[in-house]
Design a protein that fits this description.
- The N and C termini lie far apart (41 Å).
- Helix content is 36%, strand content 18%.
- The chain has a seven-stranded mixed β-sheet, with helices on both faces. Strands 5-10-9 form a three-stranded mixed β-sheet. Strands 11-12-13 form a three-stranded antiparallel β-sheet.
- β11 and β12 form a beta hairpin.
- It is globular.
- With 317 residues, it is an alpha/beta fold.
């Protein structure tokens, strides 16, 4: 068992993003393992190939989780792919706890996080009060408080303790099985809005307080960007090899050039390095690692127009 047991999920289209998360953790020199629920065969092959050469990765086929929780699997037919993946959020930690009895705590990581410093301060907060669950707030500035309809908390990073977190996870699972829509409704949105109820409904739920962790496109002006813990690159994607969508403009934010270079151009370089690693280790998958994002389903022209409209377009040299 590693000191830090992390878990995430991604499909092949998101493989370079997920491996970039992994590489950022590896650079920290911490004792960790990353469990990846692979959402398709391409992602399973990619993660397995890296695990085979000693990388601290564990590939979990989605089919195994579906066999573990048939009620979850039955949801596939009545919701979109995104909604189905949202529904996975409370199911996956219960699966890992079930098959790995030596793991005492698990930390979820969104695949589009990038770590600049060890998450040890968050785990220290968690252990100092023997917490059951740790959640992260969005930290919206005043002009974005209307976005609380999507939830006070962001699913990006969570810690769960074996046993004491199970009541919250099981309640969350039931809520997501019943409804996990991708369009906000009063009191609910996808898997995320349900987290608003955790602090009042369950004991041992705490909120991570270190402002260096959870820096994101919507809150970076309020956070210590000179000393980041992790940055959430939500919405970042390549449109062409040299044009990308930062997603900053979607929140009415424009970063100074120095921060754009440190965060976004630096992250783009890491994504390119991850693609190169995957092409080297999984040459049979190389055709899908050409550096252009195909997750949204939009044409390249529509992606470009959207990025221009929202002031998200940036050049990657």
């Amino acid at each position: 068992m590693a000191e830090y047991e992390f878990f995430t999920c991604f499909d092949f289209n998101y493989a370079a993003t997920g491996i970039t998360l992994y590489r950022s953790l590896k650079k920290l020199g911490i004792d960790f393992r990353l469990h990846v629920c692979t959402l398709d065969n391409g992602a399973f092959k990619a993660v397995s190939a890296l695990a085979a050469i000693g990388e601290k990765l564990n590939a979990i086929p989605l089919a195994e989780v579906e066999r573990f929780d048939p009620e979850f699997a039955a949801c596939r037919h009545n919701r979109s792919r995104a909604e189905y993946i949202f529904t996975l959020s409370p199911v996956l930690p219960r699966y890992i706890f079930s098959v790995a009895p030596d793991i005492g705590r698990l930390a979820w990581l969104d695949a589009d996080l990038f770590f600049y410093a060890s998450p040890e301060p968050l785990f220290r907060e968690f252990e100092s009060c023997n917490a059951a669950v740790l959640l992260m707030e969005h930290g919206f500035p005043p002009h974005l408080m209307w976005r609380l309809k999507y939830g006070r908390f962001n699913v990006e990073f969570q810690i769960y303790r074996r046993g004491s977190s199970f009541a919250a996870l099981d309640w969350w699972r039931r809520k997501c099985l019943d409804w996990c829509g991708d369009v906000p409704e009063p009191g609910r949105f996808a898997d995320q809005k349900y987290l608003d109820e955790f602090p009042e409904k369950f004991s041992g739920v705490i909120v991570g307080r270190d402002p260096r962790f959870g820096i994101a496109p919507w809150n970076w002006p309020l956070r210590p960007c000179d000393d980041p813990g992790f940055y959430h690159f939500q919405g970042f994607r390549f449109i062409t090899r040299h044009l990308a969508c930062s997603n900053l403009g979607s929140y009415g934010n424009r970063m100074p050039e120095a921060l754009l270079t440190r965060f976004y151009r630096g992250y783009a370089a890491e994504l390119i390095a991850s693609r190169a690693l995957l092409r080297e280790r999984c040459p049979e998958l190389g055709a899908g690692l050409n550096g252009v994002d195909r997750r949204t389903g939009r044409s390249r022209f529509r992606e470009l127009l959207s990025a221009l409209k929202h002031r998200n377009l940036m050049v990657i040299k």
